[in-house]
Amino acid sequence: QLDLHGGHNHVVESSRGASPAIPAVQVCVRVRPLLDWECSDGLASSCLQLAGSPPQRITLLPRDGVSSEEELNEKGRIQKPREFAFNAVFGPASSQQEVWDQVGLGNLVCKVVEGFHATVFAYGQTGSGKTHTMDGFAYGPSAGTAPSALAKKPKVHVHLASPEQLGVVPRAVRELFARIDLLRKPSLWSPEGETGESFDVKVSFLQIYNERLYDLLNPATLAVLTSLGAAGASGEDGGQPGLRLRWDAAKEHFYVENLFEYGCHSAE
Fold first, then answer.
1. Residue 66 in contact with residue 77, Cβ under 8 Å?
2. pTM more than 0.85
3. Is residue 128 part of an annotated ligand binding site?
4. What start and end residues bound the annotated signal peptide (predicted)?
């Protein structure tokens, strides 16, 4: 059963009994290490303390990093250390594999194969490490020449990343197809001539930009985003229409109208 409105005390259980029960909702925090330029500027990371084994609590200290004393801020208000609890907390030295294992993302993929819905998203300010956690690919300077912010973004080098560097998305895709391949094979107890289970994997990729939805797998979208970038540089709103969010009464769920879906036969 799946409690769609449940919090972290509810669990997702499989009728097959093939995978362990996991929390329906998890909130995890990952603290990134200081960047080279931050170290050069003399910045320190002593304002955060991790507690627990494995860590599940994080303490935000006053600016001087003292955990046992109070401090006055600019407005004369007393600052005290503040502690927050999460399902998991990952320190600056944590690896991509540790994140994958401790959050139980492999079990989450298993639930998807069994027919459940699952969502993983990263939230945080610019530069907090979302891209590294989610994809882990190597990035280099872009060679783009378009007059927009799109051309200034770093270019991704997918095949230069080592397996240890890969983040949540490529690991989840690889795990998904590995589990599907196993289930597609007939078991030893299957009647002669009977094949394994059948799966159809499709992928879509969209962006929400200024309250509009854009299909990033549609070749025509690149021109739209380029024009939006040029308009943004001049302080204008591109006025380009996005896709529409619709409600499917029969299936009782929302969907994005005319969103491209590509069939996938392997993780590559």
1. no
2. no
3. yes
4. none
User: Could you tell me which residues come within 8 angstroms of residue 141 by beta carbon, excluding any fewer than 6 positions away?
Assistant: 154, 155
124-170: pLDDT as tens digits = 998 899 999 999 988 776 544 444 444 456 677 777 788 899 999 99
Structure tokens given for 138: 């190597």
Residue 129 is assigned to a ligand binding site: yes
Q: Is 127 annotated as a binding residue?
A: yes
Pairing of strands 55-60, 82-85: antiparallel
**124 known ligand binder:** yes
Write the DSSP symbol of residue 251: T
Residue 165 annotated in ligand binding:
no
- Report domain extents, the chain: 96-198, 200-268
Identify the bridge partners of residue 209 per DSSP, sorted by sequence position: 212
Over its C-alpha atoms, the chain yields an Rg (Å, rounded) of 23
Chain centroid to Cα 2, Å, comes to: 21
User: Does 65 show up as a binding residue in the annotation?
Assistant: no
